[in-house]
Amino acid sequence: MNRTSSVAMLALLAAVGIGATYLAHQAAAPRIAAEQRLIDSRSLLDLLPPDSYDNQPLEQPLTLDNNLLANSTLLIGYRATKAGQPSVVLLRSQTLGYAGSIELLIAIDVNGKLLGVKTLKQAETPGLGARIADWPNSWLQAFSGKSRTEIADSGWALKKDQGQFDQIAGATITSRAVINAVHDALRYFDEHRQSLVEGSPHE
């Protein structure tokens, strides 16, 4: 076999190898994407009681109007249902903490009661404000069961600000930011209850 033939054969083998790799990747892509969605789903939906829904909330995002709030921005929403009936609204919120943005997932039942709050992203000071990222999180659990009917708007503040909530030790700014974002989400839910609970998900 001369040099030209050898080069051509190597080029052909390389092309076949690249093609096979591409086809294998294309065939595996849907499975990989499905597995990633499952991981994301578990990370987000572990905020909800397992018996509170039987749909796939993350596959049916809600359209959020007027999402720029007093102290935060709502990024997206989801509706969980049980036996076809709305059960929980999930609101993904972004606010500004001490060192950067904080993203929260806030779960509210159809009666306006908080089921839980989870930190999704944060850049706060390690050992201080960054503790909001711990899961489970005893400080964030203090919001569970609360609502605007139980606590007046003026109560959604730190105790040092005449409110009803303790702060994370050494992290006043972080604590205020989270409390304000949760309060924003509750207000938004109350003002948009019908569309969040009964409206159609974004197609």
Entry summary:
The chain has helices at residues 3-45, 138-141, 172-191, 193-198; strands at 61-62, 73-82, 85-96, 101-109, 114-121. It is α+β, with helices and mostly antiparallel strands. The chain folds into two domains: 1-45; 50-198, no CATH class.
Structural commentary:
With about 200 residues, the protein is of the alpha+beta class. It folds into two domains: about 1-45; about 50-200, no CATH class. Helix content is about 35%, strand content about 20%. It is built from four helices and five strands. It has a five-stranded antiparallel beta sheet with strand order 1-2-3-4-5. The longest helix is centred in the N-terminal third of the chain and has 43 residues, at about 5-45. The model has no long low-confidence stretch (mean pLDDT about 90).
Comma- or semicolon-separated keywords:
203 residues, alpha+beta, 2 domains, five-stranded antiparallel sheet, 5 strands, elongated
Q: How would you classify the helix and strand content by structural class?
A: alpha+beta
In the predicted model, the low-confidence regions spanning at least 5 consecutive residues are none
Radius of gyration: 23 Å
The biggest beta sheet is recorded as: 5 strands, antiparallel
H-E string: HEEEEEHHH
Q: Number of helical runs?
A: 4
The strand line-up of the biggest sheet is 1-2-3-4-5
Residue share in helices? 25-40%
Query: β content, as a range?
Result: 15-25%
**What's the overall average pLDDT, rounded?**
88
The separation of the N and C termini measures: 60 Å
What is the overall silhouette? elongated
Please, how many domains? 2
Number of strands: 5
